[in-house]
């Protein structure tokens, strides 16, 4: 029987392929490389809330769930009034390990008041908070406005530090504890990714102190607001980085330190 040369050729190709084919163990093992996250070595984050707005209380459980502590700057003359946290709510936050700081008696712009009125705004506010049982060492200038006289009054009233609202990040430890430099206000269109970048960019640039300034916690109620979902997502990320990647989250008092000074009457 005459053999078909085409069939013979095909058989030869198939036999050669079988001989040279790699075994299963010779096959390369597919691998998936997970992009490494940042390991934080030189960055500290502080979460600060201004004014004592009632909606700030919404973040209490979010902070606790993620093992975070924040600094709440309170206008003591507004405490318990419509739209502001009650004394008991402030005590709840404080019991969780959060810091309660001063923010004047009536949210006055300190560059607009002088002499005895200036001292009353700062000292009486601190006296009120001390009377509630809080260890009050930190202050925030309303609107970030201060001058030499108001800065000196903050010192004279017994504070250990004072926060502004611009020029962040600050150094760790800070260059001037009475002009702490903060990141830009968190406002209604500040995204999670932007807050994330504030932190990661500081680490990439060599580290520092990233102070966040929050006001209202709500969805669209105010220009100076963060919605609870965005804050919760950011808090969860911070908690994860604190637990796994070396990021340090502290209250302002924990960063600056210093003893709690006696009350100073205005």
Topology:
Elements: H1 5-20, E1 43-51, H2 60-65, E2 71-74, H3 87-95, E3 99-102, H4 115-131, E4 138-140, H5 148-156, E5 161-167, E6 180-182, H6 192-204, E7 208-214, E8 216-217, E9 225-226, H7 228-244, E10 248-249, H8 252-256
Parallel strand pairs: 1-2, 1-7, 1-10, 2-3, 4-5, 5-6, 8-9
Helix pairs in contact: 4-5
Write structural notes for this entry.
By secondary structure, the chain is of the alpha/beta class. It has a single domain (45-255), classed as TIM Barrel (Alpha-Beta Barrel), CATH 3.20.20.370. It has helices at residues 5-20, 60-65, 87-95, 115-131, 148-156, 192-204, 228-244, 252-256, and strands at residues 43-51, 71-74, 99-102, 138-140, 161-167, 180-182, 208-214, 216-217, 225-226, 248-249. The strands form 3 sheets. Strands 1, 2, 3, 7 and 10 form a 5-stranded parallel β-sheet that branches. Strands 4-5-6 form a 3-stranded parallel β-sheet. Strand 2 (71-74), helix 3 and strand 3 (99-102) form a beta-alpha-beta unit. The protein is globular, with a radius of gyration of 29 Å.
- The DSSP helix count reads 8
Order of helices and strands: HEHEHEHEHEEHEEEHEH
Helix/strand class = alpha/beta
Helix content: 25-40%
CATH fold field value: TIM Barrel
What's the architecture in CATH terms?
Answer: Alpha-Beta Barrel
The total of beta strands comes to: 10
Biggest sheet overview = 5 strands, parallel
For the termini, the CA-CA separation is 121 Å
- Under CATH, the homologous superfamily reads Glycoside hydrolase/deacetylase
Radius of gyration using CA atoms only: 29 Å
Q: Can you give the mean pLDDT? A: 89
CATH class: Alpha Beta
Shape: globular
- Tell me the count of domains: 1
Strand content: 15-25%
Low-confidence stretches: 1-36
């Amino acid at each position: 029987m005459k053999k078909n040369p085409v069939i013979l050729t095909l058989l030869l190709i198939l036999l050669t392929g079988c001989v040279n084919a790699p075994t299963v163990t010779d096959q390369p093992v597919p691998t998936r490389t997970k992009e490494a996250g940042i390991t934080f070595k030189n960055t500290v984050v502080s979460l600060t809330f201004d004014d004592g707005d009632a909606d700030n209380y919404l973040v209490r459980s979010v902070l606790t769930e993620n093992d975070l502590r924040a600094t709440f700057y309170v206008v003591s003359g507004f405490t318990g009034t419509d739209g502001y946290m009650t004394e008991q709510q402030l005590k709840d936050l404080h019991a969780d390990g959060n810091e309660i700081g001063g923010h004047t008696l009536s949210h006055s712009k300190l560059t607009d008041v002088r002499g005895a009125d200036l001292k009353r705004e700062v000292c009486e506010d601190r006296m009120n908070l001390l009377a509630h049982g809080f260890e009050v060492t930190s202050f925030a200038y309303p609107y970030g406005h201060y001058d030499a006289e108001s800065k000196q009054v903050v010192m004279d009233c017994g504070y250990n530090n004072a926060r502004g609202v611009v020029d962040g990040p600050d150094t760790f430890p800070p260059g001037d504890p009475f002009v702490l430099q903060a990141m830009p206000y968190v406002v209604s269109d500040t995204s999670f990714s932007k807050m994330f970048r504030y932190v990661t960019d500081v680490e990439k640039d060599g580290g520092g102190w990233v102070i966040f300034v929050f006001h209202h916690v709500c969805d669209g109620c105010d220009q100076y607001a963060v919605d609870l979902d965005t804050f919760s997502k950011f808090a969860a990320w911070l908690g994860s980085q604190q637990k796994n990647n070396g990021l340090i989250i502290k209250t302002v008092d924990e960063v600056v330190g210093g003893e709690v000074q006696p009350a100073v009457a205005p």
